[in-house]
Specification:
Structural class: alpha/beta
Helix content: 40-55%
Number of helices: 14
Pfam families: PS_pyruv_trans
Strand content: 5-15%
CATH topology of the largest domain: Rossmann fold
InterPro entries: Polysacch_pyruvyl_Trfase
CATH architecture of the largest domain: 3-Layer(aba) Sandwich
Distance between the termini: 12 Å
Largest sheet: 5 strands, parallel
Strand order of the largest sheet: 3-2-1-4-5
Organism: Clostridium segne
Protein name: Polysaccharide pyruvyl transferase family protein
Keywords: Transferase
């Protein structure tokens, strides 16, 4: 069968890259041919104009190191996205279209709202079967969907619907007669051995990996430094320029798995940062305040105690019982694979 995936494969975000890549590879393993619907980079994080704009601002401020990271990030993703076979349109040779994963159903986001007809299947030709795999509405409030009731009739045209979190499930089930399943993020369809095939850099130092979006509060930074000092570890920051880090890495999906695989400890505030901590069986802390998708993920794996931004030193020393986590992950992964197996046979 020919399968076209509609997702955000070309953002400068390691989680977005890996969810798109892992889903495609798993579907190929099922014996299908996979392509991705071409997505313009204009207005996205991988827009060359943004890279130029940010670089000019950094030059004016004398932050040349930041300019180098912007350029390296752009180049690394420009190279990485060549791994995706893309098509211009969904045509008659396509048997199935899969929408997801990531937050493509987040109608409170201006980009996804503008592109909603694409990401909710309204542009697919008649006769093509539509499936959603693990999209999320993120933190979109229900009143936004109430205002889009008529638009949401499109859910009834899907032959299979799944989402990646309970909040998306509870919200969307009110707007369709179809059954909705909750499945794992595509990155979890694969184990650590899959990702280790993409390690591009050997890492020998002992280090604490910090994968953080946005500005790190001073109180959190002090705790990170305390942990690193007490364990004689270097601090490696990924993506964001972290003041006080010994090594500052640009966003790069292959550098990402290279360092994740070797980290002694991880501190993050991101969804996929949490997922890859679990995949690589790391002792980690996540600051998930107000982030429903992370809180649900922690609850799923009975890791709620890893969520803190105050007593990090104490929590990082509480060992995660990964044999229990693995049991949950195996069941979750198998249920999710079963959804795909069933959906792609109907």
């Amino acid at each position: 069968m020919n399968v076209c995936i509609v997702t955000v494969y070309n953002s400068e975000n390691c989680g977005s890259f890996w969810q798109a890549y892992a889903l495609g590879k798993y579907i190929e393993m099922m014996g299908h041919n996979v392509t991705y619907l071409k997505r313009s980079c204009i207005g996205t994080s991988h827009d060359i104009r943004k890279t130029i704009e940010f670089s000019v601002k950094a030059i004016v401020k004398g932050r040349i190191g930041r300019v180098r990271r912007y350029i390296r990030t752009y180049r690394s993703f420009e190279k990485a996205i060549q791994n995706f076979p893309v098509r211009e349109d969904i045509e008659s040779d396509v048997d199935y279209v899969i929408y997801g994963s990531d937050t493509i159903w987040e109608l409170s986001d201006s980009y996804f709202y503008r592109k909603r007809n694409i990401y909710w299947g309204n542009t697919a030709p008649k006769g093509v079967k539509k499936i959603s795999y693990a999209p999320s509405i993120a933190n979109t409030m229900e009143n936004v969907f109430e205002e889009e009731k008529e638009f949401l009739n499109c859910l009834d045209t899907f032959s299979g619907i799944s989402v990646r979190d309970d909040y998306s499930y509870e919200t969307l089930k009110k707007y369709t007669k179809n059954e909705i399943d909750v499945v794992c993020d595509p990155t979890l369809l694969m184990d650590k051995f899959f990702y280790e095939n993409f390690i591009t850099q050997k890492v020998h130092q002992q280090f604490l990996l910090v994968y953080w979006f946005g500005i790190i509060p001073n109180s959190v930074m002090r705790q990170i430094q305390e942990i690193a000092r007490s364990k004689n570890l270097k601090i490696v920051s990924f993506g964001e320029s972290l003041r006080g880090a010994d090594t500052k890495l640009e966003f790069d999906p292959f550098l990402f798995v290279s360092y994740y695989s070797k980290a002694n400890y991880v501190i993050t505030n991101t969804f996929h940062g949490t997922i890859f901590s679990i995949i690589f069986r790391k002792q980690f802390i996540v600051a998930a305040t107000g982030k429903k998708k992370i809180l649900e993920l922690l609850k799923k794996f009975k890791l709620e105690q890893r969520n803190t931004d105050t007593n990090m030193y104490e929590k990082i020393n509480e060992e995660i019982r990964y044999f229990e986590v693995e049991k949950i992950l195996d069941d979750y992964r198998n249920e999710s694979k079963e959804f795909l197996n069933k959906a792609l046979k109907e």
